[in-house]
Amino acid sequence: MSDTAAIELVGVHKDFLSHGDTVQAVKPTDLAVGQGEFFSLLGPSGCGKTTTMRMIAGFEEPSGGTVFLDGNDVTGVAPHKRDVNMVFQSYALFPHLTAYQNVAFGLERKKVAKDEIRRRVGEMLEIVSLTGMEKRSPREMSGGQQQRVALARALVNGPRALLLDEPLGALDLKLRQQMQIELKRIQREVGITFVYVTHDQGEALTMSDRIAVMEGGRIDQLGTPREIYEKPATRFVAGFIGTSNLLDGSVDSVTGGVALLVFGPEEKVLVPVPASVTDGAKLEISVRPEKIDLSRDAPAAADCSVLTGTVREVVYHGTSTNYTVRTSAGADLVVFDQNAYSAEDLAGPGDRVYLTWSPQHSYPIGVRP
């Protein structure tokens, strides 16, 4: 076990019976979340992320394995005896109580002194930017303000960890984006471990120190937002995290740790590879749309990947223009061109274009040293 883990799962799995058959909602999982870390469980509906969180909270009993909180085995311990709190999408505020009373509720149940309650509730309302709104009822507050009250109520008891299950799902897009920044700020201020469940990859990338991408009841990849975005470990991760272009090919040669894949007389892809990749190896390569340059002119540089193709679609998105190009390699590649200097399109449907990018922006999926 890790000495520094706030939360640790060792061989934890969850089985359900469905029509007489055993279904593994969560396959055997080992996972350690560090003290004070903002950790996200990310994946589509049904991937097992919420079940994993509920096993940490104690609302679901694992079918096997061990759950540790701060090094203590809490497998089988009731939820109210675990030093964690949970925030849900529905907020679950008491409608007949004020914001102050909602936040103070848990402290009053614990018979904390009134002066101490006033101090701690005041501090927490200040942290979530609700000072001056103590007397408002939930119905007098916006969705974002209600979410802040729910956060303050969960944090005021000083739990070892806070578990958040899709907490921003009920908010509109602009407010959700604002709350993402606020949540990260609050987490840094209070210094408590956050475990955040979401299906929104933008949320996870914005807030997390590390992300576990889940699919089919297992963790496909665990890493920092940058690692997961830039170096997806599987085809699923490459497609689920943002937009990714995928290319298949055979290695023509490897020189200085860079593989050459040839697709035509002037068309090639260069990709850094470990020593385990040799001539003739089959590779699946990921390259992000914003890494690709699109031009009607042939590139002058020889040390870059080059494909040719025909523009099929041009979509204007305000901050960027997105191009879909059918390449000679037989794949449709998406290119994002940021509208920083010109609002003019680089090319139109039917135009023949060159696509170029640096070797370091190609990443071989599923290749291990």
Description:
GO terms for molecular function: ABC-type putrescine transporter activity; ATP binding; ATP hydrolysis activity. Its EC number is 7.6.2.11. Keywords: ATP-binding, Cell membrane, Membrane, Nucleotide-binding, Translocase, Transport. With 369 residues, this protein is an alpha+beta fold. The chain folds into 2 domains: 7-240, P-loop containing nucleotide triphosphate hydrolases (Rossmann fold), CATH 3.40.50; 246-363, OB fold (Dihydrolipoamide Acetyltransferase, E2P). Helices cover 23% and strands 37% of the residues. The chain contains 8 helices and 21 strands. The protein has helices at residues 49-57, 99-109, 114-127, 143-155, 173-190, 201-207, 225-230, 235-240, and strands at residues 5-18, 21-34, 38-42, 64-69, 72-73, 84-88, 161-165, 193-198, 210-215, 218-223, 245-250, 253-255, 258-264, 267-272, 282-287, 293-295, 305-316, 320-327, 332-338, 352-357, 363-364. The strands form 5 sheets. It has a 6-stranded mixed sheet with strand order 6-7-8-3-9-10, sandwiched between helices. Strands 16-20-17-18-19 form a 5-stranded antiparallel sheet, with no helix packed on it. A hairpin with a 2-residue loop joins strand 4 and strand 5. Helix 2 crosses helix 3 (114-127), helix 2 (99-109) runs parallel beside helix 4 (143-155) and helix 3 (114-127) crosses helix 4. The protein is globular and about 80 Å long. The mean pLDDT is 91.
